[in-house]
Amino acid sequence: MLERTISGAAAAGSRGAAVAPAAGSWSWRLWLELFDQAATGARLDARGFLIFQGFYWTGATLSLVILLATFYPCSAGVAIVSGRIAIGVGLAVLLHRIYISRRLQRASGWSRLCWILAVNAGAVVTSSATVAGLISLGLPELPSESPFWSVAVARAISLLTWNVAYFGVLLVKEYHAVRLEASEAMLAARAGELAQLRSQINPHFLLNSLNSVVAEKGDPGKVESLVLSLAGYLRFSLQQGPGLAPLGRELDALENYLQVEKIRFEEKLEYQVVAAAAARAHQVPNALVLPLLENAVKYGQLTSGWPLRLGISARLEAGEMVIGVANSGRWMEPGVSGGSGIGLANLRRRLELLYGGRARLEVVEGDGHVEVRVRLPADFYPLLP
Predict the structure, then answer these.
(1) Domains in the chain: boundaries
(2) Which pTM was predicted?
């Protein structure tokens, strides 16, 4: 079996989802998503990190100088400040490199948090033990009965404030980035809605259906079945909006679509729709399956012998909503035999805007059949305008 991923998960820098909430409608879930992405540090490039370091440690140096001059005046103040800042800068660079490492970026939310806490704890213990040892050898430092614990407390406070500032900067950057992408999603949604109004009814499908009505005029039963199925499909096509709806609603409409095609092709077409009740009740974007089915009908006729076999399936598995449309035949790359691939390209773009890297569009090619699958996170619902 050969599998192609048409649209895999986005790179580490891909935003969570191009959600488009109105101002003030940010939920706790969105903030957690933002922090989870910010925790990778992938959005703070080398230049941004240098600027952040410059501002932060300049402020830390001034604060430490004022603190020592006010409460602990001593002749070794410059050496103490220099030593603490140098160690702090070194640890900050090390932590940043760890935060942007592939291992940490691939970790899940809780695992990532545990890694961050463990790394910081290790940094505090290691640096404190090192500094305490250097103090015993004569390194200038404030007098203390327990140099290790004195340094450990100071280092823990230093790293805590640095981490708060570091992730705060990332969170603000992510917030503005998602707001910007949300605006893009809203504009794309409006443009898509206009395009949908222009192409809701496939003219070839409608023309072929009307020709089938004329061809079956001698059989009132077939004509009635065809007209009812066509009306059901057109009703769905005209009423669908840009929001979410139960998957079962679209599957019912697509059964009407297939019934019309069955009357047209007769024994040359076989189809089945298999979807559990939980999958049918799951909320998904409107018109999610239709472009897959139209693609299967179009290219199935070009690559399959008769009868053309079509199958629609939907299931919930391993935290994902998996929707598949299969047809007998083989996979054809976009541009072959007049195919533009616009339908799948548009769907891929919609998934990217709505789900970011959480959704995937896959092509699985087997022996004499091909299936296009959409994988959506079962526990994530995009916020649509």
Answers:
(1) 2-11+201-377, 39-179
(2) 0.50
